[in-house]
Predict the 3D structure of the following.
Amino acid sequence: MKVEVDDGSRGLANEFPEQISAPPKKPAEDACDGDQRAWREAKRQQSSARICVEHTNAELKKWRPLQRYTGRRETYAETHLSIAGLVSDRSARRPTRHRHSTELVPVRQPAC
């Protein structure tokens, strides 16, 4: 499996290049315009591929039960998975403007 990360995880990408992909380093200020444009385009493509995952992660953090979990430690995993399933299903149904190679699929099929 290969993971795509942002600029903040460049150290991991350098350490495990076969498993982690980070956007290319920003070219030097004296680099030619072609290099600058190529860098911006590579960064834009990676951001476009990651945005749906970032939005889903942000939505998961907005659920009140996960913000301050006060229940029993033993039931946290079940609570987290339940909410993650709801968020995943909602994200899969959300219309997108772009077609991606990985299609989001609902966790649970709707009841008939």
